[in-house]
Amino acid sequence: MKRLLRMILSRTFLILMLLLLQIILLFVLINYISQIGVWGTVFYAISVLIIIYLITRNENPAYKMSWIIPILVFPLFGGLFYLIYRNRNFSKKVIQRELEIEKQREIYVKDTKIPKPFQDTVYLHQQGYPTYQHTKSDFLGSGELMFEKLLEDLKNAKKYIFMEFFIISKGYMWDAILNVLKQKAKAGIDVKIIYDDFGSSTLPYRYTKHLRKMGIDALNFNPMRIHLNFAMNYRDHRKIVVIDGNIGYTGGINIGDEYINKTKPFGHWLDAGIRLEGRAVWTLVISFLETYQFVSHQEIDYLDYKGDLELESDGYVAPFSDTPLDRELTTKNIFLSLIYSAKKSIYITTPYLIIDHELTTAFTFAAKSGIDIKIIIPYVPDKKIVFMVTESYVPELIAAGAKVYRYEPGFIHSKMMIIDGQKAVIGTANFDFRSLYLHFENTVYLDNTSSIKDMNTFIDETIAKSICITETGKRNLVYKLFQIIFRGFSSIM
């Protein structure tokens, strides 16, 4: 009851209600005008032209259908709604600024060689994400473990601390971190924080001002607006911490008490992250500063923040980021490449499994080719409608020969994939449309690092606590009907 009350009184709920009111008023207005003269015919013609335009666009078919279906259902309203709102994403000026910032990345990594020129590393290198040696990687198999290590490293910071999170919510975890950040800022250490305005909507309004009074340079990403604008879908889903340019963290763990099981709204919360130390942290520094420059409009010399630590080689490490503004589906392309490269096994943990046709085809092809595919999803969902869509993909994967497990103690939020026990990716991206098409994400690509052994152990231990799904046909007809409807709009979930 308290959670429901907090949701109703939240800033997010108020904005969503106002947006819904805008849509209703627009619907009523168009319906009224359509009864005057030839305006109804004009609105129908607009919808037809928009559908033809969408069919011919070079865009993901699922996205096209998410627009075509409502336009067909509401032919008077749909086409005009598309014209008014669909194109109000980031302006050309904003997109151009992001592309110019990305070009700067080439300056800072141009002299980096490719130590292992395989397909994935060459592709990432062309996007400005080098593959590094001389980096230590430590897999952190719980939010509690990552929190413990992070606090220790924050306390030892000497020069600067960068933090970028989708969610920062008040509680035990944030209080402990903020206490350290305040002390460091007071000691003259450069502390910068970026948080997503939607993901961190439980924070007080203009919380950045509160942090700045403490000496913390704080920015909120893509502030929510009352005016309906689909740019609101583009969220900063990254989780990056960089300390002195030598230590970096990323993974599925945000800053909130549920991530360290101080609160348990969905049973036991199982998450994972990775700690990097050494040369590969440079990419995390660049990724953070790119976001900082994009939000703040400040010019920055990245070299001022480059670390100097070089360790013994432990395999190959390639951190990379993804943005929806450059139309390069970096994360999805790496996922597909890894799936098709598998010779023996593909192990995945993900809280959401909402995949497009290309990924579905890749998984089913791999399973039918004899690849051992194991996918772990939650037993207790955090979003019931989204989980209904996740469930809808399970039967075809099982039919192809994949094994899908549900983590029985509660909710699994870790986002990782291991290929043949030798290559892996771990980071912030889910196997869903939002992560692969709409959100700003970051991931770490690993090849033959010692941390992959720990990731394999994590998979084995998690499967031991999970239930293998063997029967998928027991849902009633109404439930299946809703699954079909929601899956039709899965590209916006």
In the sheet with the most strands, the strands line up as 9-16-15-14-10-11-12-17
End-to-end distance: 25 Å
Query: Which structural class do you get from the secondary structure elements?
Result: alpha/beta
Rough outline: globular
CATH architecture name of the largest domain: 2-Layer Sandwich
CATH class of the largest domain: Alpha Beta
Oligomeric state of the chains in view? single chain
Number of strands: 17
Unreliable stretches covering 5 or more consecutive residues? none
- Total helical segments: 17
Q: Give the biggest sheet.
A: 8 strands, mixed
Query: Percent helix among the residues?
Result: 40-55%
CATH homologous superfamily designation of the largest domain: Endonuclease Chain A
Kindly report the average pLDDT value: 90
The CATH topology of the largest domain corresponds to: Endonuclease, Chain A
Tally of discrete structural domains? 3
What is the radius of gyration computed over CA atoms, rounded to a whole number of angstroms? 23 Å
DSSP strand content: 15-25%
